[in-house]
Design brief:
alpha+beta, globular, Thiol Ester Dehydrase, Chain A, two-stranded antiparallel ribbon, 6-stranded antiparallel sheet, homotetramer, 150 residues, 8 strands
């Protein structure tokens, strides 16, 4: 009897999907750190070309990171339904992140049949968890004829 | 006597800033098409690595595009104040854009001393202007000791 | 042969629904001005108890107004599907509206089978249309077994 | 020597401001439950005229509740700066709240000199805390010449 899984998509499975099917995620240095039924943690591995004037990490990198964290959190629950798509996304930028990795911790606020709603707090490794750099919310639409990737 | 300018930052000046100071904009294929006092148009030049499962353009590319269009619309009015930063950003995804360039048309809803608010409609060249693919709003904070880049 | 209608819900029909079924709309002084396939205009009739410190119209009155304008714009297209519900709502406050009526002009950005996305610009009669006081976007979920109210 | 306060505005002080200066808050049944440096809890006391078609609490009541909770959370930190104003507000609606009181628990994500950013989770007393009915984020602008009400 197989042990009960603590997620419907592992970090390895997610990163395999990302490698094969989300090439822009590599452009943004994104990779999954952990995925569970309660949420997901995604990392943007720093590169100097993510910096904007003033020397802080550019907003679009943080938005791509949070969006990917939502995707991982949802797929961790419903499995590899690749065609789940963002219907809206919103971010508040709280502090300018200095050069360094950014971590997004996403959690599901609601997982319905048709819509999933998530929030994420983003922290900079340089500033620590006490000083979040951004907060995001977003909604994903889950296709009704969802076919999982085998 | 110099002719009156129709903007405080030209497309050429913006693209020069982008080349020198926004390296992630190149990652996302972004370049300014037009900048005026009433707004700005920005283009994401298509690359196949912008596609996500289902074959449509990934959301983070569209978010980066709209954010850059807001930046151009604001700098078109206040000049090259590079340290203007996004304080919040929100996007609704309306239709899945097929492969092809995306255009963001941004306009200023408000230009205050401290905050500027913008909206943008994003269209796919493949679908045409009648079928927008996304709509974005955002707020930028304008530094009070704003020094323009010469 | 009946003349073609220019909407699937008239102003009179909407206001009848509001009177019977949206009692909070009366608390907020809301009434429909016009409804068409391309959008709807809703008015918040001024009362002094809508004012907040500083003497401007309180934000929640403007949020209720825009949300009702979205509802009218959607029902104008799909008919009296009362159970359509907001799934998200966002507003940018642009200027402080002085005492006086506020008008919200809503238009549909997308009308899908399951989701409708709207935007609205809010103007104060005291300031005029050139100085909008707020901008809103929102998404409504349309029930699949939608039964119209006869 | 006075004991250190655990807030710069008490529940009693906030409710006194609301009674005198936020008459729409009474329309929406709002009253502060607790205020501290870490956030605030606000309640919308149920009335049947808050219900919308389907028998659930109308969205604008929840938006007004969250906006007031943000205001209380901020004034709890900076004192009675009545002229602090919302610059943007966003809400995700997660579940339809049945008739009954709604509680908004707000916390500060950032308190800067010019801007404060908050989030709130809204729960229905009928459904319990495990099933939040809405999630909100918002930004307030803090006037630089802020004069506190004595």
């Amino acid at each position: 009897m197989p042990a009960p899984r603590d997620t419907n998509l592992t970090v390895q499975e997610f990163n395999r999907i990302a490698d094969a099917r989300l090439p822009f995620a590599a452009l943004m240095g994104l990779r999954a750190e952990s995925i569970g039924f309660d949420g997901a943690v995604m990392r943007a591995v720093h590169r100097d070309d993510f910096l904007r004037p003033g020397g802080s990490i550019a907003g679009p990198i943080m938005m791509g990171l949070a969006d990917a964290a939502f995707y991982a959190a949802i797929l961790g629950n419903i499995g590899a339904v690749e065609l789940a798509v963002t219907t809206n996304f919103s971010m508040h930028f709280l502090r300018k992140p200095p050069p360094g990795d950014i971590l997004a911790r996403a959690r599901l606020l609601k997982l319905g049949k048709r819509l999933a709603v998530c929030e994420a707090t983003l922290c900079s490794e340089a500033l620590g968890d006490e000083q979040p750099v951004a907060h995001a919310t977003g909604t994903y639409s889950i296709p009704q004829d969802a076919k999982k990737v085998s």
